[in-house]
Amino acid sequence: MLKRKIWLFILAFVLLALGITFWLMRRHDEVKYKEVLVLGHAGSGFLSPLNPFNPLPSNSMASLVKAMEENGADGVEVDVQMSQDGVLILYHDVSLESMTKAQGIIDNLPAAEVVGLKYKGGFFYDLFHEEEIITLEAMLQRFATYPELPYLHIDLRNHVASRHLYYAQTLLDMLRKYNYPHEKLVFISPNVQFLLAFREVEPAAQLMIDTAGDYEQALLEAKNNALQGICANGRDVSAAQVQRAKEQGLQVALFGGKSRSRIARIINMQPDAIQVDNVAAARQMLE
């Protein structure tokens, strides 16, 4: 009898703990603001063991397809680098060592040595995918099959300042090839001179400065250079800061958010777009 009571007590305690955990996870997920674009952050976000489980490498084709075709994103944010021979490639990190068996940075390598490299996220993650590095054009070809082109936030990655203008010309030429409308494109970088290279090539380009952790300086740079927007980590800003940017006439994009409570907090700060790591949760909350 005593053993039975002990087991019943343990069961009740476990159920109570699970109930409290569930309540804590969901009690802050009320969304009061609905006018926000939901963009997949580098597709479906970054490798994650839980909340949500995500074995798909950022910027991989499967990650992009999941965000758009399975989870119903309005668009995606992607990281675009340019190879030594001028091919635009989707990859997030500076060095190839971080996610592949290759070495070096994409700027210094021909595309033939980069495109098709298998992503390596670790033994556990690699059990669930066979993804490889793809070109920007491969993604655009996929999007061209959609009834309507999605919104596209492009995080500009270039480590050779002398190639800013060439990068801008190459990227804009590629987007024109697929008739991408300016109103669905945003170009993002913490480097103002890089952004201005895009204005030189295309005066109608929508330019957004990444705060790189310094929101106030980014606001000043946006004002001084007549940029159209500001992009920040949702953990690092307040609703008041977002509102100040919008009063300045800027679009605001916030990135991050895996848990429902974090996503709700970001959305309720009323940005124009959220580059979210859990598209399914964000979309559900906005229904």
From TrEMBL:
Protein name: Glycerophosphoryl diester phosphodiesterase
Assigned keywords, A-Z: Membrane, Transmembrane, Transmembrane helix
GO molecular function, one term: phosphoric diester hydrolase activity
InterPro entries: GP_PDE_dom, PLC-like_Pdiesterase_TIM-brl
GO terms classed as biological process: lipid metabolic process
Recorded superkingdom: Bacteria
Chain ranges of the GP-PDE domain: 36-286
Entry's transmembrane regions: 6-25
